[in-house]
């Protein structure tokens, strides 16, 4: 995978999509606050001449990002400060332990695309985790049965880094489940190579249940190459789940979400979470108020079978679990 596969300048994408010059100039200014990155392959799915395209709207820098809005912060889930575990022990860098029995490793900042609403947009580093230190720490935490690899995007790690990570995880006999959160099959499916599947298989051969959670926000993300890639995961019989962020102007509509969840199910993916936006500075314009979200959730219950309706939740720093927005 070479850097030429990505567009990192809004001017290039704007010209490709025939966007107005004043929008491009504004986007160039705004992107100084957070990196801009869109895979060329994804850009090919975007409708030309409109900023309202649901894929473009997730990645295009908007002036709204520059507004300071009360309640929005650089680290909305307090991940940089809540770094002590229940026993008050300092955790190694890149490791989070929010919930009972599960720990999370932020693998790196290498995402296939940079989402403007990302709750880690101000905190994602590029440094790779020190797996030796993390494994040494976890050796003393046998109550952790599930390790979550998040990011950035774990599948954006170099193959040798992933190999190292899996090597250490394989040595943790009490870890029964490894959950990988990724947008790669959706944003840049060709990067999920047969070599990666070999690595997944190796982990599975060490008695680890491997679970994938795909981040999907709109049915237009399910292009034929993405669908084929998801079907590859399905053929390998991995449990597949999705999570979706409720986003103003992108998927704040029960019909759109119902289409997304139905298509996911056809590919073998169970809709798992519908997330209320985490209040990260620069993303307030994406927020759908809770009351409106509840109405959308209620409509979903009316038009879909219950097994296709994900849990509508919010994450609260320090809480023992995600909070259902009933
Ligand atoms: S961590 Fe996820 S939400 Fe954030 S930029 Fe990467 S792919 Fe997007």
What is the architecture of the largest domain at the second tier of CATH? Alpha-Beta Barrel
**Mean pLDDT across every amino acid position:** 94
The strand line-up of the biggest sheet is 3-4-5-6-7-8-9-10-11
| Helix-strand makeup class | alpha/beta
C-alpha termini separation: 43 Å
**How much of the sequence is in beta strands?**
15-25%
The backbone outline, from C-alpha atoms, is globular
Q: How much helix, percentage-wise, in residues?
A: 25-40%
Total count of domains:
2
> How many helical elements?
11
- SSE topology string: EHHEHHEEHEHEHHEHEHEHEE
Poorly predicted segments: none
**Which ions and ligands are bound to the chains?**
iron/sulfur cluster
Tell me the layout of helices and strands.
Layout: E1 6-7, H1 10-16, H2 21-30, E2 38-39, H3 40-43, H4 56-59, E3 95-99, E4 102-106, H5 131-138, E5 146-150, H6 159-170, E6 177-182, H7 184-187, H8 194-204, E7 209-215, H9 224-235, E8 240-245, H10 254-266, E9 270-275, H11 290-303, E10 311-314, E11 323-324
Parallel strand pairs: 4-5, 5-6, 6-7, 7-8, 8-9, 9-10
Antiparallel strand pairs: 1-2, 3-4, 10-11
Bound molecules: iron/sulfur cluster (SF4).
The site of iron/sulfur cluster has 10 residues, from loops.
């Amino acid at each position: 995978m070479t850097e030429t596969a990505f567009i990192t300048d809004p001017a290039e994408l704007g010209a490709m999509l025939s966007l107005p010059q004043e929008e491009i100039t504004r986007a160039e200014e705004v992107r100084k606050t957070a990196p801009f990155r869109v895979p060329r392959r994804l850009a090919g799915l975007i409708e030309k001449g409109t900023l309202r395209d649901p894929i473009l709207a997730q990645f295009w820098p908007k002036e709204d990002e520059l507004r300071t809005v009360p309640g929005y912060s650089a680290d909305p889930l307090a991940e940089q400060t809540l770094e002590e575990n229940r026993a008050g022990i300092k955790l190694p860098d890149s490791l989070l332990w929010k919930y009972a029995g599960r720990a999370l490793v932020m693998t790196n900042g290498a995402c296939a695309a940079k989402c403007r609403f990302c709750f880690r947009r101000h905190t994602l580093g590029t440094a790779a985790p020190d797996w030796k230190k993390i494994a040494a720490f976890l050796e003393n935490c046998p109550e952790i049965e599930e390790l979550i690899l998040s990011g950035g995007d774990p599948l954006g790690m170099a193959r040798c880094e992933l190999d190292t990570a899996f090597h250490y995880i394989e040595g943790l006999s009490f870890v029964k489940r490894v959950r990988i959160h990724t947008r790669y099959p959706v944003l840049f499916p060709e990067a999920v190579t047969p070599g990666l599947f070999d690595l997944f298989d190796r982990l599975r051969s060490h008695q680890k249940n491997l679970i994938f959670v795909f981040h999907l926000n709109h049915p237009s993300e399910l292009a034929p190459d993405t669908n084929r890639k998801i079907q590859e995961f399905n053929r390998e019989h991995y449990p597949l789940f999705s999570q979706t962020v409720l986003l103003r102007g992108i998927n704040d509509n029960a019909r759109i979400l119902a289409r997304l969840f139905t298509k996911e199910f056809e590919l073998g993916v169970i809709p798992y979470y519908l997330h209320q936006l985490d209040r990260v500075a620069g993303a307030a314009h994406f927020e759908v108020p809770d009351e409106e979200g509840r109405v959308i959730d209620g409509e979903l219950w009316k038009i879909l079978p219950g097994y296709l309706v994900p849990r509508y939740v919010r994450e609260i720093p320090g809480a023992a679990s995600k909070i259902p927005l009933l």
